[in-house]
UniProtKB/TrEMBL annotation:
Signal peptide as annotated in the record: 1-21
Higher taxonomy: Bacteria, Pseudomonadati, Bacteroidota, Flavobacteriia, Flavobacteriales
Protein origin, superkingdom: Bacteria
Transmembrane segments: 127-146
Coiled coil segments of this chain: 153-195
UniProt name for this protein: tRNA (Guanine-N1)-methyltransferase
The species this protein was found in: Aureitalea marina
Keywords attached to this entry: Coiled coil, Membrane, Signal, Transmembrane, Transmembrane helix
Length: 195
């Protein structure tokens, strides 16, 4: 059992030495130097090394101090990583919102709002030129119809004037005839009275 304990202790110490070889102790020696010192300055008993307990305790203290320092560094590194992750998350959210704003800005830049609807410039141009074309077509149709109606109205006015003139002539002739007939009648009445 003693052999197993010493072997396990030796393995533990070697692993600790490998992991923490560069760590220094209170005296300024590295763990690797301390392991070498413990091994070199320990006595031999048959195939075993006999290590003095105070050296083992000092080595254990150095290993524990080194582990505590590494754990502290690890915690600091984890805190730094967490802070950087938070910063990255914030920057990613900021980037996303900036990209969204850029997309909206580009959409507005490449579009025109018509009656509250955002249209692309080509669609807007198509609608506007179609509207202008339709209005011009309506204007041409209105002008043509106006001219036709105006021509018909002029013709009708001319015909009305001719008819009114003919009617006036007819009325004048009728009045003249009537007056002649009355005269003739009066003359006949006067002749009849004299007879």
């Amino acid at each position: 059992m003693r052999k197993k304990t010493l072997v396990l202790l030796y393995i533990f110490l070697m692993l600790g030495a490998i992991l923490l070889a560069q760590e220094t102790t209170e005296t300024g020696n590295t763990l690797d130097d301390q392991f070498t010192d413990v091994i070199d300055n320990s006595n031999r008993y048959q195939d075993y090394k006999v290590v003095k307990i105070y050296k083992l305790n000092a080595l254990k203290k150095s290993v524990m101090d080194s582990l505590a320092a590494i754990e502290k560094d690890l915690n600091t590194a984890q805190d730094t990583i967490a802070a950087k992750d938070n910063t990255i998350g914030g920057l990613s959210a900021n980037l996303k919102s900036t990209q969204d704003e850029l997309a909206v800005s580009r959409e507005k830049e490449n579009g025109i709002s018509l009656f509250g609807i955002l249209l692309t410039k080509s669609t807007y141009n198509t609608i506007m030129w179609s509207s202008i074309g339709l209005l011009l077509l309506l204007l041409v149709v209105t002008v043509v119809r106006f001219r036709q109606s105006n021509a018909v109205t002029r013709e009708s006015k001319l015909k009305l004037a001719e008819v009114e003139e003919e009617y006036e002539d007819y009325r004048q002739r009728t009045l003249d005839r009537e007056q002649q007939l009355r005269r003739k009648l009066q003359d006949e009445i006067n002749k009849q009275k004299k007879n």
